[in-house]
Automatic annotation (TrEMBL):
Keyword Secreted: no
Fe2OG dioxygenase domain: residues covered: 106-207
SMART domains noted in UniProt: P4Hc
PROSITE patterns, per the entry: FE2OG_OXY
Any one GO molecular function term: ferrous iron binding
Keyword Metal-binding: yes
One Gene Ontology biological process: cellular response to hypoxia
Assigned keywords, A-Z: Dioxygenase, Iron, Metal-binding, Oxidoreductase, Vitamin C
Protein's UniProt name: SM-20-related protein
Length: 219
């Protein structure tokens, strides 16, 4: 198994990450081009392309205890990342380093991280939603990393983030290596219909709190 080209430890004191953390602290979100270098993004992209149909599942909507598959809301397929797989672990290690830095610099108290690869075939979308509802989820911070080489404006598939007045705040092209971070219970967002296969890794840093005495399920 080939390892990711740039060792994860290089993230430490990475100026790109410091800027992202400042941006996150002041606005509640950050958009970070080149968070993953092109070789690593391409490596993860080819890994995703090489997965079999049976490695993916149809994405659901809602919490684990209320799981429904609603193709009117979202039409992507996902694969939960697991540390047993070397490629997936390399990504999880990167995010563990980011978690440490967020906790150190912003005292966010992030406890763990769950994430999945997502594949949006042409025509797929994910309608406006929030990733977490206040007091009802342990998801604190959403992360999305894009893997698509040479993504162009006419390919569609933008991530659109809205402010609390329902105005467009940011439109992000899903270009390889870009990381988006935002507070999960604050920013409504959507994935617009795309015209190419779109690959990304979405994840959530979580708090370790129980809800009604029940430990929050991991997915
Ligand atoms: O892929 C994206 O740009 C965002 C995905 C998303 O909103 C989600 O999975 O909750
Ligand atoms: Fe989302």
């Amino acid at each position: 198994m080939v390892s990711l080209v740039e060792p994860i430890s290089k993230l430490e004191n990475h100026p790109v990450v410091d800027n992202a953390i400042d941006e996150l602290a002041s606005k509640g979100y950050a958009i970070v081009p080149n968070f993953i270098n092109p070789e690593n993004a391409d490596y993860l992209y080819r890994y995703a392309l090489g997965l079999k149909d049976s490695d993916w599942q149809q994405a659901g909507v809602g919490r684990a205890d209320n799981y429904t598959t609603n193709t009117q809301v979202r039409r992507d397929r996902i694969r939960w990342l697991q540390a047993q797989d070397a490629v997936e672990r390399a990504y999880l290690d990167t995010m563990a380093t980011l978690q440490q830095q967020l906790n150190r610099q912003l005292f966010m108290g992030l406890f763990d991280y769950e994430s999945h690869l997502a594949h949006y075939p042409p025509g797929a979308f994910y309608r406006k939603h929030l990733d977490a509802f206040k007091g009802r989820s342990n998801r604190i911070l959403t992360t999305v990393v894009y893997l698509n080489p040479d993504w162009q404006v006419h390919d569609g598939g933008e991530l659109v983030m809205y402010d609390d007045q329902h105005q467009v705040l940011q439109t992000v092209l899903p270009k390889a290596g870009t990381l988006v971070l935002f507070l999960s219970d604050t920013f409504v967002h959507e994935v617009r219909e795309g015209h190419r296969d779109r690959y990304s890794i979405t994840g959530w840093f979580r708090h370790n709190t129980s809800i009604n005495g029940v430990i929050d399920p991991t997915r």
